[in-house]
């Protein structure tokens, strides 16, 4: 009986999807156990770090899967209307264990009625990756904000850390190659962010990301603009 040869990239994509689901279940278990146990400061810190590392792995797998699908021209976009305050609350809740352990103050600045059309899963993963890095490099504060600028949605995540390195600010992010981004503090996350932003289009306008330093918290400022 003859068998057709397996395409390795297809098998790899299926494996990444399966691993992503397993990591999601593991994250849920960690959250459940953490709320049921009485922690010492040491175990609380260890649980928070454990949660952080697994969340980072899960985010990386989601990015790799999206990058693979994009390379195969099969990246699906499920564009629907979503409220920004709900999206921000989801992001904070998802990382609550690490935020509490590191004693970070995360504030949200957005109108309760502000909503926009975008792919929830892709944008949520994009912003979560930026938030996770902000949590790692911030000193004590992070701010998430959203508003309408020039008829486009502008989402910002800023922190009070040391800011983005100069080499990352010297050239536009969309001109950076994956190899260049891999050497940065956020790895391929920014390449993924640029890809997902650009995939969101409306009336010949594309989404984009920008990196700056300063802002209200005098640290790094990540800006996502969606048409």
Averaged pLDDT: 82
Shape: globular
Question: Could you give the distance between the termini?
Answer: 53 Å
Rg on CA atoms, Å: 18 Å
Give the helix tally: 8
Number of domains: 1
How many β-strand stretches? 9
Largest sheet: 5 strands, mixed
Which CATH class is shown? Alpha Beta
Report low-confidence residues grouped into runs of 5 or more.
Answer: none
Assigned CATH architecture: 2-Layer Sandwich
CATH topology: Heat Shock Protein 90
How much of the sequence lies in strands comes to 15-25%
Give the helix/strand class.
alpha+beta
Which strands sit side by side, in order, in the main sheet? Answer: 2-4-5-9-8
Give the ordered list of helices and strands: HHEHHEEHEEHHHEEEE
Helix content: 40-55%
The CATH homologous superfamily is named Histidine kinase-like ATPase, C-terminal domain
Pfam family, one: HATPase_c
InterPro entries: HATPase_C_sf (IPR036890), HATPase_dom (IPR003594), His_kinase_dom (IPR005467), Sig_transdc_His_kin-like_C (IPR004358)
Domain Histidine kinase: 14-227
Protein name: histidine kinase
What is the topological layout?
Layout: H1 8-36, H2 41-71, E1 79-83, H3 84-94, H4 96-101, E2 105-109, E3 115-119, H5 120-137, E4 141-149, E5 152-159, H6 166-169, H7 178-182, H8 189-199, E6 201-202, E7 205-206, E8 208-214, E9 219-226
Parallel strand pairs: 2-4
Antiparallel strand pairs: 1-3, 4-5, 5-9, 6-7, 8-9
Helix pairs in contact: 1-2, 2-5, 5-8
Domain Histidine kinase: 14-227
InterPro entries: HATPase_C_sf (IPR036890), HATPase_dom (IPR003594), His_kinase_dom (IPR005467), Sig_transdc_His_kin-like_C (IPR004358)
Enzyme class: transferase
């Amino acid at each position: 009986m003859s068998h057709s040869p397996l395409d390795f990239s297809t098998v790899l994509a299926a494996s990444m999807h399966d691993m992503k689901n397993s990591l999601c279940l593991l994250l849920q278990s960690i959250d459940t156990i953490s709320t049921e146990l009485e922690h010492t400061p040491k175990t609380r810190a260890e649980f928070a770090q454990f949660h952080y590392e697994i969340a980072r792995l899960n985010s990386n797998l989601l990015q790799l899967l999206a990058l693979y699908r994009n390379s195969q021209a099969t990246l699906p976009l499920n564009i629907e209307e979503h409220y920004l305050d709900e999206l921000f609350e989801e992001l904070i809740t998802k990382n609550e264990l690490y935020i509490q352990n590191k004693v970070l103050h995360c504030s949200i600045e957005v109108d309760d009625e502000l909503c926009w059309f975008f792919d929830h899963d892709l944008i949520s993963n994009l912003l979560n990756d930026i938030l996770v890095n902000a949590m790692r490099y911030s000193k004590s504060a992070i701010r998430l904000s959203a508003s309408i600028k020039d008829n486009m949605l502008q989402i910002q995540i800023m922190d009070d850390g040391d800011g983005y390195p100069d080499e990352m600010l010297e050239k536009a992010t969309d001109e950076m190659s994956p190899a260049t981004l891999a050497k940065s503090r956020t790895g391929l996350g920014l390449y993924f962010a640029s890809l997902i932003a650009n995939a969101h289009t409306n009336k010949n306008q594309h989404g984009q990301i920008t990196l700056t330093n300063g802002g209200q918290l005098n640290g790094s400022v990540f800006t996502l603009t969606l048409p």
